[in-house]
Design brief:
This protein has 248 residues and is an alpha/beta fold. Helix content is 45%, strand content 20%.
């Protein structure tokens, strides 16, 4: 290989997006890893939760693909621990497909999930969507946004209300920004799903329910009786600039 070609390869590896794959089934993990490398990603593989946490602290991957069925630390718990350490997108792989389990995974801080078996093309499309969302978050450095009592800090990627500040994951940030940008306006479910997750998610209302619940836990005095991020039944959600108590 010529020096010039070597240089190009090194640059490519240096700039490559890095992905940590956490999966205990070796054949499956290797196959996934090899395929992602062919697509140009830098890949780290972990066979257990402990290994994943170790590689995570050493390598700081840009994205994590996480199987739910793992020995030692299970996938839900690992997801929760990783989410405390990073806002990098987490994609869950699961053989479980009950809505409750998937919502549970999103609740533990995952950004998206895929149910096994899935095609490589499907996985690649999800990874690209997650990376787009994460990049969107970082590159949109503009003035801070506000909707009345609720403020978003671009610098720390946090939502602030009455002095309380919470750092948001890329997906939380995208959704919260959308509400703040359309302060006081009702945003329909399908529009939010299409804008934040992508057109193919327009009917996946559970994503929105989980994320709205998470945002409410950051901004609402009582998340069970929301006064800022309010539901319009059958239509969508609205973010009010000040507490808004719906008439009984
Ligand atoms: Ca497994």
């Amino acid at each position: 290989m010529s020096d010039k070609r070597m240089e190009v390869c090194r640059m490519h590896a240096k700039n490559a997006v890095s992905i940590l794959i956490v999966e205990d089934e070796e054949r499956y993990r290797r196959l996934l890893g090899a395929n992602l490398q062919i697509e140009g990603y830098e890949v780290w593989e972990a066979a257990s939760g402990h290994e994943a946490l170790q590689i995570f602290s050493d390598r700081k991957p840009d994205l994590i693909v996480l199987d739910l069925r793992l020995p030692e630390i299970d996938g839900f718990e690992l997801c929760r621990r990783l989410r405390k350490m990073t806002s990098a997108p987490i994609l869950i792989l699961t053989a479980l497909n009950t809505e409750a389990d998937l919502i549970h995974a999103l609740d533990f801080g995952a950004d998206d999930y895929l149910t096994k078996p899935f095609s490589l093309q499907e996985l690649l499309a999800r990874l690209r969507a997650l990376l787009r969302r994460a990049a969107h978050t970082v590159s949109e450095q503009s003035a801070d946004l506000a909707c009345g009592d609720i403020m978003l800090s671009e610098e720390t990627r946090a939502v602030m209300i009455h002095g309380r500040s919470t750092r948001l994951t890329p997906t939380e940030w995208s959704l919260m920004s959308e509400f703040v940008l359309h302060c006081g306006k009702v945003l329909p479910h399908d529009r939010l799903l299409g804008k934040i997750w992508g057109p193919e998610y327009r009917n996946d209302h559970e994503y929105l329910r989980v994320y709205v619940r998470r945002l409410r836990s950051y901004i609402e005095p009582n998340p069970k009786r929301p006064v800022y991020l309010v539901t319009h039944a059958g239509i969508g959600y609205v973010l009010h600039p000040s507490p808004h108590v719906p008439p009984d």
